[in-house]
Amino acid sequence: MEKLCRKYNCENTDIYKTRSEKIQKSIIKLMDKKSGMFWAADMDCKQIDIWGSAYAVNIGITNVEQSKRISEYLIHNADQIVLNGQIRHLPGSDSGWNNLFLSCEEGTYQNGAFWATPLAWVVPVIAQQNFPLAKKILQNAIDDFQKNGINECINIDYNKVPNYVVSATNVYCHTR
Fold this sequence. Notes:
There is one protein chain. By secondary structure, this protein is α+β, with helices and mostly antiparallel strands. The chain has two domains: 30 residues, no CATH class; 143 residues, no CATH class. It has eight helices and five strands. The protein has a five-stranded antiparallel beta sheet with strand order 1-2-3-4-5. Strand 1 and strand 2 form a beta hairpin.
């Protein structure tokens, strides 16, 4: 927000700068030292957050070592977190969230399904250290779209919301 405010001469630029600095200083509280990934939360759902960790790297709020560890984690766990080029919120060791606002069956929707939405920030983080794997994930997503349609999320014998535009646009941005 700070960069956008500066670019378009908006007011309150300093507010966003202060918020950004606070986030960068305190984000370490959510770091799981063992895995090198961020937790989704510090109490309920204190589980490794695949999407959030990759997003933190992508927007530049992690340091070099954190970015490297997150990229390595995604690479080494790709077989557990990627299905047909689409990404889970959670690592393969977690079948679902510990606590949900709205109940949904494990392996479905936001409780263990695989999404194309985070490819926009996961693929670049993987590509930092393993470009062939990043390219393979992207190609697998495209292949799945062609074979099974573009869905909001998928799992084995499961898909939700066909013709989901965000899934298509987040993959398209990498094909340009």
